[in-house]
C-alpha cells in the first residue's frame, strides 16, 4: 500500500475529488495548510500599507491506495490539479506498512 500526499491549490480541490471519485477512489483526507516553494510569497495592500504574505493557502490531500492504483492516482491528481502556473503543488508517495479499520478490525488492503 502507498500513501499519496498532494499539496494543491484550494480552488482545485473539487476537480481533484471528482476525478479521483471517477477513478473509484472514495476515501481521502483534505487538510487546509499554508506553505510556499518556488512560488515564494507575494505582497498585498491592506489599508494603504504593503505587507508580505510568505505562506500561501493550499490544500493537502492524503490518500492510501493499493500499490497497483498508485500511478493512476498520481496521474489523475496531476491532470486535475494542473493550471500550468507556478504554485500548482507537489505529490509525495510513501510506503504504508499497515492499515487497520477501527470499526471492523479489517487490516491492510481490506481496510482501504
Annotation keywords:
112 residues, alpha+beta, four-stranded antiparallel sheet, two-stranded antiparallel ribbon, elongated
Strand pairing plus helix content: what structural class? Answer: alpha+beta
Distance between the termini: 9 Å
Strand residue content: 35-45%
Residue windows where pLDDT falls under 50 for at least 5 positions: none
Please count the beta strands (DSSP E, at least 2 residues each): 6
Shape: elongated
* Average of the residue pLDDT scores: 90
Number of helices: 2
Order of helices and strands: EHEEEEHE
Strand order of the largest sheet: 2-5-1-6
Structure description:
The structure is a single chain. This protein has helices at 13-23, 70-81, and strands at 2-8, 29-35, 42-46, 49-53, 56-65, 89-95. The chain has 112 residues and is of the alpha+beta class. The strands form 2 sheets. It has a 4-stranded antiparallel sheet with strand order 2-5-1-6, with helices on one face. The longest helix is centred in the last third of the chain and has 12 residues, at 70-81. It is elongated, with a radius of gyration of 17 Å.
Amino acid at each position: 500500500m502507498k500513501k499519496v500526499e498532494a499539496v494543491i491549490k484550494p480552488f482545485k480541490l473539487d476537480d481533484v475529488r471528482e476525478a479521483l471519485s471517477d477513478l473509484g477512489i472514495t476515501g481521502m483526507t483534505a487538510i487546509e495548510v499554508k506553505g510556499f516553494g518556488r512560488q515564494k510569497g507575494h505582497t498585498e495592500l491592506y489599508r494603504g500599507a504593503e505587507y508580505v504574505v510568505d505562506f500561501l493557502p493550499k490544500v493537502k490531500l492524503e490518500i492510501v491506495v493499493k500499490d497497483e492504483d498508485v500511478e493512476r492516482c498520481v496521474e489523475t491528481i496531476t491532470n486535475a490539479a494542473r493550471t500550468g502556473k507556478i504554485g500548482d503543488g507537489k505529490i509525495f508517495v510513501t510506503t504504508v506498512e499497515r492499515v487497520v479499520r477501527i470499526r471492523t478490525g479489517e487490516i491492510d488492503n481490506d481496510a482501504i
